[in-house]
Amino acid sequence: MSPSVSRVGIVAKSHLRAAAPHLADIVAWLDQRGIKPVFETATSALCATAGASQVPGSLDKLALVSAVDMVLVLGGDGTLLSMADAIAAAGVDVPILGVNFGSLGFLTEVTLPELYPALEAAVSGNISIENRIMLRSTTQRNGETMPEHLALNDVVITKAARARMTDLSVSLGDEFVTRVKADGLIVATPTGSTAYNLAAGGPIVQPVVDALVLTPIAPHMLTNRPIVIPAASMVRVKPMMDERDELYVTFDGQAGYQLRAGDEVQIQKASRPLRLLRPSNRSYFEVLRQKLKWNER
Question: Which of 211, 259, 224 is nearest to 238 (CA)?
Fold first, then answer.
């Protein structure tokens, strides 16, 4: 990462009052180094509630990621996912650093005591950057292509709570793979393999692996198992449904819409990865051991 960081975007989890007292301190820390802080709109309001004498200018998420050299996220993995999707939608390569206000996150793995050492490493260019695969998803409907969505973790096709089991035809490019009869299907990146995919029984995939995972949700047949595929594959999912069925496609759990009979969801690796800033003193497997409590029994 280049050490020439002159503007840092700051985004806190919505209504995270525990973050409010730290915002003014972060602003002062950046000011001392001649770095301009730029708040996301809701974060600016949160800072004001802490009684800060001066609140930096603010921008909405899409405008913010296009105006800064890096993004600092205070919150949890959900907050970072939201900003990752905004970075992808804006088509920029701005790197992102996540600070968790709980114990430890898979994405926001910097803890609060590590905030300033990690921030110092980031603005000076002495921090590692991991390129994380993102997904690009579109839906073909009546011969037209609906607007694309980008996701860092997963694209999920699932039924409504009271709907009957789904029947999904899955292909890779022009090659038919299988019909999945289940509550739904998760298409996950390696980053997303430790999210919904893991809860649904899918495998953990190290982020450096150039692959995607297809994981059925509560499959009707036990022979419907998760599949690891090359990341270059085009995944095509066509629900076998009629007008009575309620199916939805969601993107990182942040956005989504209802599918209609005849729709085909197409999912592939996005052209740009997310640039995730990570401290060099904690390995991926150390995070897994802490989060999943390996070796504690």
Answer: 259
The share of the chain scoring above pLDDT 90, in percent, equals 65
Q: Over the stretch 225-272, which tens digit does the pLDDT of each residue have?
A: 999 999 999 999 999 988 788 999 999 999 999 999 999 999 999 999
Side chain identity at residue 280, one-letter code: S
* DSSP sequence for 250-262: EETTTEEEE--TT
Rounded to whole angstroms, the Cα distance separating 117 from 111 reads 11
Please list the residues that pair with 111 across neighbouring strands.
100
Asked whether residue 1 is assigned to any structural domain, the reply reads: no
Which H or E run contains 83?
Answer: helix 77-90
Per the CB < 8 A criterion, the answer to whether 188 and 111 are in contact is no
Catalytic residues: 77
How many CA atoms within 13 Å lie on the side-chain side of 290? 13
Quote the pTM value.
0.91
262 shares its domain with 286: no
Q: Is 150 helix (H, G, I), strand (E, B) or coil?
A: strand
CA distances 294 to 32, 248, 289, Å, are: 42, 35, 5
How far is Cα 9 from Cα 98, in angstroms, rounded to an integer? 12
- Determine the residue type at 80: L
Q: How many domains does the chain have?
A: 2
